[in-house]
Batch of 2 targets.
Target 1
Amino acid sequence: MKTIGVLTSGGDSPGMNAAIRAVVRSGIYNGCKIVGVKQGYHGLIKGYMEEMNLSSVADIIHRGGTMLQTARSEEFLTEEGRQKAMYAINIFGIDGLVVIGGDGSFKGAQKLNELGIPTIGLPGTIDNDLRYTEYTIGFDTAVNTVLDAIGRIRDTSASHGRANIIEVMGRHCGDIALYAGLAGGAESIIVPEVEFKIDQVCSKLIKGRNRGKLHSIILLAEGVGGAMEISKEIEEKTGIETRVTILGHIQRGGSPTAFDRILASKMGARAVELLLEGKKNRALGINGLEIIDVDFVDVFKQTDGFHQKTYDLANILSI
Ligand code: F6P
């Protein structure tokens, strides 16, 4: 293993830069040449690559986004696109590749392994929707960003005696809503993994109002959708004025938390070690305090991992 490529793919997440830095610095420490691929798989197909040195990754550990840029490539989903990528990989003499991204990016990485290039995946997504790992890089930062927004909305919610629905990201995974809701003391948390009953939400709001509560925060995962309709229904059923805030991409930006920086640094260095040990087709994760690595095949097998106990606890604490 002489030359290692690194790319970020799919939606960016805070901590991706810390991961790139760790791959570059630990790779160079171990005597490797590191090639940075710009714009994810799109850049891999186009050959947007350049050698990185120690200075290339200076002053990035604290920055959100990804200095390598990212993309969602339609062409890479085709066999022809992947063949073009392999051509570029060979031209640049890449012996192993580190892919930082979510499940779609991992599927691409698995295909590259099949075509003969050893690949290691780092879970970079705010969604926390990869169930083989307890945390993905960027999730903790996104939860803290939502928490900050909850605090601000609570101020205005209490001033007007309103209910506020806050829609957060996460595609089909409710983890951002669940964890930000628990940490932020939300009255209700609505996620795709649990059947949603409007009457339960309304009954909590009415009980809260009757005992003098001035504000109500409802966290809604985007996978459930229908924020405006839910808000209208709440107003009709409870008579409580209800506002909607869709946080959107604000959750994806910002300086990564210490947790995400440390996770990304450990995983980036471990990815280099695995490639040097001759490993391939593996995804990195965290279990407790331990960094683990799992075959991509097992990554895609684990789809059910919603933390029901945490959801139940949030419900109990918001009675
Ligand atoms: O996967 C990360 C994510 O931020 C999801 O939470 C969200 O649904 C999606 O990406 C948004 O994608 P885009 O940036 O392409 O609008």
Note: The mean pLDDT is 97.
Target 2
Amino acid sequence: MKSEFVTSATKKSEWPNTDLPEIVVVGRSNVGKSSFINALVGRKKLAYVGNTPGKTRLINFFAIDDSWMLVDVPGYGYAKMSKSMLIKMGEMMEEYFYEREQLKGVVSLVDARHEPTNDDLDMVQSLKEAHIPIIVVATKIDKVPKTKRIRALKTISQSLQIPMKNIYAVSSTEKIGFEEVIVKIKEVLES
Ligand code: GTP
Ligand code: MG
């Protein structure tokens, strides 16, 4: 898959001026959004990955195959960030979700090891209310023993009230689960 960094933005005037359809990747800080993007497109350092939460601070746009955009955004639920920073990032995200006309779907990442948090539930709820298609992806599945993986996905499905067929599992470190997610993203892009 061809991928290239287009631009970073903090506000509407900085969004790229294209009409390519967009898929945005959301999730708690440190859940693995940037790693997911890198593994999905098969690049090591397209999106910036960090060991401490709160690494991605801007909205980053990546053009894929010159035909659609993958969008990396800051994570939610990072308590250690200053209040003013949290407010600023919240406003930046809200503007994007409400006003980006070519936003076609959201990949909502949750940690495969844990039950979804209240922030995860709030995020999925707002997306449902906005009628934006949601693909749920459980990250870091390599950290869950093989015999416990189905159970973990069922827990996520029940908690988020999303059918099992719309829940995927990936490991960005082991590069597993991405082909299925790509098929689903393409389906959403074409719908
Ligand atoms: P913010 O930008 O801070 O919101 O974080 P993020 O959601 O973009 O997470 P990021 O991709 O930066 O990854 C956070 C940490 O989790 C890094 O140390 C990654 O190496 C690790 N990580 C990400 N995906 C996986 C995975 O599938 N398996 C394992 N074992 N570790 C992962
Ligand atoms: Mg990130």
Note: The two ends are 21 Å apart (CA to CA).
